[in-house]
Design brief:
By secondary structure, the chain is mainly alpha-helical. It has one domain. It is 59% helix and 0% strand. It has 6 helices and no strands. α1 packs antiparallel against α2 and α2 crosses α3. The longest helix has 18 residues. The protein starts with a helix and ends in a 6-residue tail after the last helix.
Length: 106
């Protein structure tokens, strides 16, 4: 399980790096601070339960095109290799957010 968490944490950090390469670039500094403070899994947990509305970062990515939503926490936690890290309720929140914008699930 530790290796899966490490890989997830690494992919969460890649979200930050790849977001800066978008057109126009997006620099999610609050997201980066959360990653540094809590790590990948806890950051994802906090973002999923923080509110029932779609998060600002999610909207920022969507404004750069639907393909950019593959850089969301919601998309990442739905990857099969990370299913053990999140409970069904968390996965359902992620699915709902992506489906609201007609994004194909991983």
């Amino acid at each position: 399980m530790f290796e899966v968490e490490q890989k997830f944490n690494e992919e969460m950090r890649q979200i930050y790096d790849k977001s800066k390469e978008l057109t126009p670039p997006y620099k999610p500094t609050r997201f980066k601070k959360m990653l540094d403070q809590y790590g990948g899994v806890e950051t994802a947990n906090r973002l999923l339960i923080s509110s029932s509305k779609i998060p600002d970062g999610f909207i920022e990515l969507y404004s750069r095109g639907p393909e950019a939503l593959k850089l969301t926490v919601e998309y990442l936690i739905l990857k099969p290799e990370y299913s053990a890290l999140f409970n069904p309720d968390q996965q359902e929140i992620a699915k709902k957010r992506l489906k609201q914008l007609n994004i194909e699930l991983p």
